[in-house]
Every structure is written in structure tokens, then in C-alpha cells.
Amino acid sequence: MPKIRSAKVIVASPARNFVTLKIETEDGVHGVGDATLNGRELAVASYLGDHVIPCLIGREAHRIEDIWQYLYRGAYWRRGPVTMSAIAAVDMALWDIKGKIAGLPLYQLLGGASRDGVMVYCHANGTTIEEAVAAGRAYMDQGYKAVRLQAGVPGLKSTYGVPKGKQPYEPADADIPTENLWSTEKYMRSVPALFEAGRDKLGWDVHLLHDAHHRLTPIEAGRLGKDLEPFRLFWLEDPVPAENQESFRLIRRHTTTPLAVGEVFNTIWDCKQLIEEQLIDYIRATVVHAGGITHLRRIASLADLYNVRTGCHGATDLSPIAMAAALHFNLAVPNFGIQEHMSHAPLTETVFPHTYSYAGGYMHPGDKPGLGVDIDEAEAAKHPYKRAYLPVNRLEDGTLYNW
């Protein structure tokens, strides 16, 4: 049985910050895992370097489940984004090693493909409704079958999901958090018009999605979902903060618009009630923040019992390593729904060479053994860490609000 000989953390900023864990066995086989926690990267890097790596040396690399339990149960201070992102990185790297030793792509070790490709959705953003819809049309021309529409809100200088200028959207945009203003009332008036225009210009043969980004109360979310019912959204994402899972019961009473939540979840306990009471339709927990492939499979298995499908987070705060892991998971899991896809910057792709691909609205992880992605350490070293924070949000009267 191969034993772990070494492990190291690589922090680099090729277009944005990423935290990568590289584990190597005594036989010289290495695996990589993503540990990026947007805006808190160095906390995870320290957790790995100071507390996890010393405990990995000499352990059998094939004992993925045992190592997962050792890092989760053995730490006593369980859960939380820092701990679970660190565990996820170890988990991804060990699955990568196992696939390489077996000579098989990871999805084959997870039971084989359940589908030919992974349907993905893109982000169509604009400062105006017209710009957002035009962006949606451009993505449809590239073959996308699902589009998330986000438009600026009249009367607000900035809106979640809408970038400054023509650059790709990146929320971690400043050395110290920027402060944005928010008005739920103005937002609620603008969104139905966005999707009326979307259906009018894009038609009914494309899935349309929207992200409210935790900014509504349950009754506001119920009202918005009801207003959007005529436009048949694929989902309304993150309508309310999900710490109180019962909030979704109130939303369910008022709308049949499908609901998605979970990109900030860390464990199965964060979504247990939501799934068991069928208060959501899609669970968006992601491989890097929810304990890796091992734990994400548990979440998906629970969800499958209750007709809840997966819809993993896939913004650019996931490195190509995490995207590859998500695609292998998506290809194998029976209750897959959809995968978020934001293209990485060319510089990021250079640092993380990979074999996954996009064509005609679908992605595939490729058939290279393991994850099919690696890190070019020499290139990564040219791009040192740069502190970058997510913004904060305030209401128009100055009250700090949900980001």
C-alpha cells in the first residue's frame, strides 16, 4: 500500500488567489487538491501547513475514508469553512492518487458515467436588462442550454453578479472590502422585467436561472418566486440566508418556482432538514467547501432519496482542480442536475493544465487517470498571493446587510 511521503501547500495568484495542496507517495505518485476559500485563503493554508500535513506523513494513501474521518472526527472542532476546505483538498488529492495508480479517470472509480456529459450554465450579466439579455443570446450562440441572468438594478450603483465594465465578474475585487448599497424594494421591482425580456428575446428552449444571493426575507422570496412563475425558471438560487433552514418552508408555501441553495454549506448537517423536508429542489454544496468528493457523495445520496438534485457551485473561486473534481462527481452521480461554469482566465489555465473540455452546452472531465488536472509549480511561483476581499453590503440607510 502506498504511503504518503510528503505534502505541501502552494498559494498563488494567477489572475486570482488559489490554494493548492500537493501530496506525494513514497512511490513518487502525486495528487492535487483545491483548498481555496475566497477572501480567507491564508487561513486554510495555515490550517493545512500547521495542523494537517504533519498528520498525513506515513499514512496509507489509499485509505481515503479513514483519513477523512481522522481529519473530521479527530479534530474535535468540527465543521466550518476553513476545516472543511482543508479536508476537501486532502480528499481530492488522495482520489487523484488513487485514480493514477489504478490507471483510471476518477469517475470510473465512482461507479462509472451516468451520462455522456455534464450540462452547465453560464453567467449572462449586464448593467441593464438589454445588456444581460444580449449576453444571454451570445452564450446561447456558443451552445449553452442554460443561462443565469443578472442585471443591474435601477437606482443602485452596483449589483451582485454584474461586473464593472466588460471584465469577467470577480467579487473579490479589493485589498480592503468595498462597500455596496442595496435596496430589496428596487431589486424586487426590476427582476420580473428582466425575465419577461429574457423569455421574449431568448425563447423557451433555454433554461433560465437567477441568484438572489441571500438578500431576501422568506416572505419576500415567496413573493419574488410567485412573480417569476410565468417565466418558468430552472431555479431561484439562494433566496434567503440558509442558517435557518425552516425559512424555506415559508417560501414553499407561496411559490412553485424551483429553489436552489448550498454553495456556502460545509457539511451534510447544513442541508439535512432542507433535503428531508423537500424544501429545496437543488443542493449546491461544492466539492471544495463541503469536505471533498467523499462528503459530497454523502450529501448527494441523501438528496437522491428525496428527489433533490445536485447543482454544484462552480464560480472562478474554484480552481481548475476543484472544477475537474466536480465534473467527475457530476458525471457519476445519479441525481445530477446542473453544474455552474465560469471560464477561468487564460493565466489560470496556464498554471493549472487540465483535460476537461466544453462543447455544445456540456462539459466532460476527460479520461486521463485521476482528476486530469495538475499545477505547474514554476509558473505558479511567478504569481504571488495578493490580498483580495469580497465586498460588504449596506442598505441605503447604512445598515450592514447580507452579502
Question: Would you spell out the secondary-structure blueprint of this structure?
Answer:
Blueprint: E1 4-12, E2 18-25, E3 30-34, H1 41-56, H2 64-73, H3 81-102, H4 106-109, E4 118-126, H5 129-141, E5 146-151, E6 179-182, H6 184-202, E7 207-211, H7 218-228, E8 235-237, H8 247-254, E9 259-261, H9 272-276, E10 282-283, H10 292-305, E11 309-310, H11 320-332, E12 339-340, H12 346-351, E13 357-359, E14 362-364, H13 377-380, E15 392-395, E16 400-401
Parallel strand pairs: 4-5, 4-12, 5-7, 6-15, 7-8, 8-9, 9-10, 10-11
Antiparallel strand pairs: 1-2, 2-3, 4-14, 13-14, 15-16
Walk me through the structure.
- It is built from 13 helices and 16 strands.
- The protein is an alpha/beta fold.
- α2 (64-73) packs antiparallel against α3 (81-102), α3 (81-102) crosses α10 (292-305) and α5 (129-141) packs across α6.
- The relative contact order is 0.16.
- The mean pLDDT is 96.
